[in-house]
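Kindly review this record before class:
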Amino acid sequence: MIQRIQSVFLFASLCFLVPMFFLPIAELVHENGEMLFFDYTGFSVYDSGSTYRIHNQYSIMAFGILICALNLVTIFLYNIRLLQIRLCIYNMLLLTGLIGITFFVVYGVNDITSISFRLPVVFPVVSIILQYLAFRGIRKDHFMVEALTRLR
């Protein structure tokens, strides 16, 4: 059943992850005054209304796509609850790794005078919380189904 509350949590988690590819996560000011914007596709520079990409981050983009795809697959595996539980745990671990990689990449840029993070930096944390809530709901359903099969 796709209308279960854990499916709603998983879908909400996916809705928080997809904008990370389009919204800037951090603004970095270079020593020469150039302003860099970081999202999961890489670093961009905005000059007088035009945008050009200066450095692509294909590894982070692939990692984010993997997490989104795993989240989408988890939504539709509602018949196989144990696999759905495992995928939720894997997704939470991957999201934690994504947070770490994001900070590693942002703080690893040379010649930066200031870094300011924007609101989308908390989206993976919210997604981890939603994944955990979905995990709890799936586990509760699994225990309920096991209890019903014992009664038969």
User: Anything to note?
Assistant: The first strand starts at residue 26 and ends at 30. The chain has one domain: 5-151. Residues 123-151 form the longest helix (29 residues).
